[in-house]
Amino acid sequence: xxxxIDENDNVIGYSIYSLYMEPxxxxxxxxxxxxxxxxxxxxxxxxxRDKKLCKHSTLSSREQENIRSKRIKECFSxxxxxxxxxxxxxxxxxxxxxxxxxxxxxxxxxxxIPDLPSFLDNNGKIIS
Length: 128
Fold this sequence. Notes:
Strand content: 15-25%
Largest sheet: 3 strands, antiparallel
Order of helices and strands: EEEHEEHHH
Structural class: alpha+beta
Number of helices: 4
Oligomer: single chain
Distance between the termini: 45 Å
Shape: elongated
Number of strands: 5
Radius of gyration: 18 Å
Strand order of the largest sheet: 2-1-3
């Protein structure tokens, strides 16, 4: 499948017949398995960043600001703990934490508040 993007990386079209289009900077070939369910209905609400389709936010500025406030309180207080804390985590926990952090960064666009990583309790302490 090929998506067509403008100079701001917003999706402006698509073709499921990628054999007939040559990929370039504005025609990006992507795997149909990673296309969100509502993409074909709402493709103009998507952009293509960091090799993935991202739906533009439909949240009000107040809702986005509430998410930003929660992110400061719930995410940054954990992410900004320092090397000694990170050294206590194994590779799998670090990977899960990284994914959780990126979900928080996307939260103002997706409207989804991510669940705490499985190895942390509600106070952000490591569960032994």
